[in-house]
Amino acid sequence: MKPIDSAQQKNRSIVRTLLFSCVLMFGFGFALVPLYDVFCRITGLNGKVTNTGPVVPEGSDKNRSVRVQMIAVNNESMPWAFRALSPVVTVYPGESKHAAYLAHNPTAQRMVAQAIPSVSPSEAAQYLHKVNCFCFDRQPLDSLETREMPLVFVIDPKLPDHISTVTLSYTLFDITTTQVAETSTSPNPSKPNSIGRNTL
Fold first, then answer.
1. DSSP class per residue in 129-168
2. Domain that holds residue 162
3. This prediction's pTM
């Protein structure tokens, strides 16, 4: 009987290890967005944008233009369709520029997303000021809903002359599970904030 008992103990050990791994992976996915944000803030990598909110107009520099590439990326677990309405825009430094991304939830469930921005080259991040951005808030979409999500930004006239092209990228993460968990534990759950315009 000893060989059988040994095999059973080994199987139990494997099952416990697999269950622990599943819990660990779930916890990592649950915390991925805030961990990513903290990592970029500490290391300064990936061109995290820290200049946000209202900006005092200083006038635009019409003698120079900057090409801004708008990139949309889905995290591997995010099933939404996500794209920039204008993949490339040209702006004058100091000009307040309006742009937008389009998101569509093709699933049968209501989902909540969070967009994480990054700028390339990373040197340009400190010169990109976001006046208004859909990435400031979580974005809930009902099943089959499509939404235009606005963005208003300004390129600082102090942007170094050798930078003529800036790439602004947004990675969209599915945080539905996080939202549900926070709502269920909150004594006064409130509806998530969102900015955007529903489109047909």
1. EEEEEGGGS-EEE-TT-EEEEEEEEEE-TTS-TT--EEEE
2. 48-198
3. 0.66
